[in-house]
Amino acid sequence: MAYIQSRFGSLLCGALFLAVFVALKTETVSVRHLAPGPEYGLLLFAIPGFITAWLIDHRCLTAALYGGLLALPFCYLIRVLFFVRVRTLPQELAYAASAIFWCVLGALLFLLAQHFVRTLRATRRRT
Length: 127
What we know:
The chain is mostly helical. It has helices at residues 9-25, 46-55, 60-82, 89-126. Helix 1 packs antiparallel against helix 2 (46-55), helix 1 packs parallel to helix 3 and helix 3 packs antiparallel against helix 4 (89-126). The longest helix is centred in the C-terminal third of the chain and has 38 residues, at 89-126.
């Protein structure tokens, strides 16, 4: 399903990554109710990778990775300028690495689902 050329995939993923980041930080999307606890909002970073893999035919994993890396400086700049700093720099880097991991994992999950669908269709044709 190649709807977008692969050279724009990183930009698309970066824009979606930035949108998820802003939605989480402005609490437009609230995923936890207690202050100390796990960051379930990181799971939402799989959405940009999933959408990127759906819209780009090949090289979707690198597009998801480069898109996340492209969006990170903008995310950190938004965080510094508009939000109160509650984490140290190493904690911010760990959060960013986790967000990129989930973004690439979203692309991998799409590829896995696509493989299962193709395999299922091929077995149905043979029978």
